[in-house]
Amino acid sequence: MMIADRSVKSMIAKLLAVLCLCLPAVGAPPAAGEQDAILTLDAKYKEWRSDPEADSTGGRQAGYEAWLARYQKAIADDPDSPAVPLARDRIVRLLYDLNRRHEALALWEASRQEDPIVALHAEYGAQQRAQGVGQWPPGERRAFYEKWLARFEEVVRDNPYSPWVHSAYDARLELYNVLGRYRESLAILEVMLNEAEADWQRRNYLMQIGEVARDAALVENDEGLAKKSIECFQKVRELTNRADTRMYTLVREAGVEALCLKNHARAAELYMQAYGLLPSVEEQEHPDPCGSCNAEDLLSYATVEYAKAGNAERALEVFRQLAEVPEEDLSRTVYLTMILGEARWAGRAGWEVICPYAQKWLDQHADDPHAPTLANNLGYAWMEAGQTRSAIGSFERALEYAAQPDALHPLAVRSLYEQLAKLYTRVGDAARATEMRKRLKELKAPNGR
Questions:
Q1: 347-449 is classed CATH 1.25.40.10
Q2: 28-33, long-range: CB within 8 Å, 24+ apart, which pairs?
Q3: DSSP assigned state of 54
Q4: pLDDT confidence band for 283 (50 / 70 / 90)
Q5: Residue 221 per-residue DSSP state
């Protein structure tokens, strides 16, 4: 049956993608005193493939034909060798090199359907979707992942030369990370990094190592892992000229500096470096949307980190830049809440700039789901600015929101009544202060008693 050219091209593209991702498999060696003939042949093939002089000794085309025949003979001589999947993978590549693409595609598809790793991966995905594992209780969900991790580890041991062995590695990485077994995840990624042959592969694995090391550093409070994460992100930047990738790694590195190392000044500088790359990212063709940040994101993060570093002057300077950025979406409410949460960094002069801006934003976006928390934080900021009446207005507004289910945490509501009682006393409104204290007593304690 003839296949349409477009279909063939699509399948060949998929085939090439798989071939590129299939790094040389590493498995247990044969028993002492034995050497698998296919593995011996494969070692010689890789030497030939990397030899720049091969073209002068009969030409590549004749070489492909010769190696194809050798691999076919090796499989015929030892059909039970555990390295047969590796030989078939080489044959697929050689057929493609010889422009025998229909044969390559047919063999690739047949090998894929027979491969136990592919079958296990499909079964795992189907069970996850059908059983709604994400909704299970934590203990049951963990047991499910532990079971599947054991099955993937077993299939890798039993099929070390499968062209899809890295598909099983990917599944194990996912499961190790879900289970919080970051060290084991890092060990696999280090092996894959060492086997990587191309810069794009090295970038990919360095990025993954950086992110897993960051997560592990947060859980284990390990400074060494945090520094390892930063080193990986820096190496990624050395391997690329893409502005979006460079910006993405700067943001990730800033997060490690802030969350793991508490180096807020350095984090703020990195966010501003990423902000400086925005024009290049916007000019770039097909930027990666997964790693993109906009000016609002980066200036907000930088403001908060400068504030945490105690650099009020620089924080206010960056906030002024943020205020000039057109509001792209309602994430501004979240960022203003974060900035106001650092309620002791700005000084009275700073709050005279920030509080009116936040007040105007709140008035214009009163229905935003984050508005209750913004109103609450704005009240404390007005207090820092010495504006008692404005603080009362914000806290009263937050109390109105608190009447809605789950608008504010119960502890925040108790604090609102306490602050309002003090503020009304300060302005001489004894009746209102008494009412606030009475309503505070009527509240249930957070434990329900």
A1: yes
A2: 28/157, 28/160
A3: G
A4: confident
A5: T
